[in-house]
Amino acid sequence: MSQQFDFSQILDALQEPFPSHEVEFKPGATNREKTKALALAYVDSRPYIQRLNLVCPDWQDEYQVMMQPDRVVVLCRLTIAGVTRTGDGECLLAGEEGDRAEPNAVTTASAQAFKRACVKFGLGAYLYDLPQVWCDYDAQKRKIINPPQLPEWALPPAERLEKATSRAVEREARLEGRGEMSAEPEPAGEPANLSNPGEFVMPGGKYQGKTLAEIAKTKDGQDYLHWFANLDGKGYQGKGAGEAQRMARAFLAIQAG
Description:
Helix content is 32%, strand content 21%. The chain is an alpha+beta fold. The chain has a four-stranded antiparallel beta sheet. The chain is elongated. Mean pLDDT is 82; it is low at 179-193. InterPro entries: Rad52_fam (IPR041247). Residues 163-201 are annotated as: Disordered.
């Protein structure tokens, strides 16, 4: 077991969604014309292994392979922090027409069993909760066309923060009558980090040189940030004041959830 985490913390870390670029979609059921298919989300085994290695490097897996006349069945026993849970997978040994063998049947069934065992610990479980969406389907390539966008709750925290920050900044730009993001160059000095406005450094005023996150931790920091975000043209008017106010508003919007 990892010395840094107890079991509940391990489960919490395993349950975090995968980065969106690791989520792919394969076709499920199709319509009669074979022009539409249900998009089924899945993630390759490698990100599962990477997450396990990161969260609890001493995990273990064991496999039991059972051959049947028409298919191979695999049972995976996955042990994390001393707790063992199982998952099963299977793969047909012949194609749809029954005239060709599946060369990677054991590998395919093992990967399915492994991921199903991971789900018992919460890893990848959220994929089963994604809405089923009908998408355009290329029957010749057996491929989903224009796969659906992941809902925000199915994104990892960093991507959710980036989206929330982007919305907050765009909203403040609209409130200032711009209609779109400003094309003006950044003011000289510390550049704004739109992925984390808490890292923005105040260019002047009472807390010059401190980040918004540092200001928020001071005794009157929250009151100051709310006051500063609602100055409406009053108060500090030095270089970078407009950008500082937008970032303060974005920071407070993210804190408010």
